[in-house]
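Input record (Table S2, row 315):
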Amino acid sequence: MPDPDPGPCDLVIAPEVVGICGTDLHLAVGDYPTGRFPVVPGHEFAGTVVSVGSAVAGFAVGDRVCVDPNVSCGVCEQCRVGAVNLCPDLVPIGVSVDGACAELVRVPAKVTYHLPDGLDFATGALIEPLACVLHAASRVRPMKDQRVLVYGAGSIGLLAVTYATAQGARSVGVVEPSAVRRGAAVEFGADAVHAPGERSGRHDVDLVIEASGHPSAVADALDRLAKRGTLLQMGVVSPEVAIDLFAYDLFDRELSLVGSQSLANAYPDAVEAVARLPRLAERMVTHTFGLEEYGAALEAARSDTARKVHLLPQQ
Ligand SMILES: [Zn+2]
Ligand SMILES: [Zn+2]
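Output record (zinc ion complex):
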């Protein structure tokens, strides 16, 4: 592909580290609703500025940067109230325009942030998924002293566990079918881990973080919620699948059902917050691949030994 030139308000970045997530697995098989095909994937990334658009201020060639991949219109009703993730004209980099799994990527300067000093590129590429967790957390009460139960110990589930622990949750449990991933959850600070169907308690959880996207997990989660409990739905459930819901439970226990999609305007907070989660990349990144090994990287990302798979486009 030809090297991109920056438009007046753009930067061209040489991505150093690009994370692979579930979105990329869907894109690769062509079943992502907002995907444009063909597209260069890669939306979780950090790298080095190699050229700067004529109207850009505040960035120079050689700057170490990370990028919020969601470019919103900035003027619609959702954008005006900060719900930029719900912008009808949202342009996600690496989904509907070419992303960072390439030697070079063009991005608008307005979604680019300087990597804090001392933060490596691998950690920089974790800012995007962490921002998804921060946005989800902003949708519910603070987690301090709450009994939290996380469904799914993929990369988002693990970040949710480490975040809830750091926030001072009273307990953090995890429900996850894979024994390997349950082990990872313990390493990330979970107090208790369970295979699906093996957790006995009912009505004893204040906050469920649903990060598996499995409809049976959602149904199970509702039965765990204590009075005034909240189900936070951040896993992507199939739009084709319904679950049973007894509206009486909402009334009787005053339950809350809350959705969270992508990262809204949480990216700048995540740039700050990532430094407060020590050794995150070391604990999180299980596999790295070169640019030409994308197929193998996707394969690895599908395995349950993968926490986060990183692609290194400059190697
Ligand atoms: Zn992602
Ligand atoms: Zn908008």
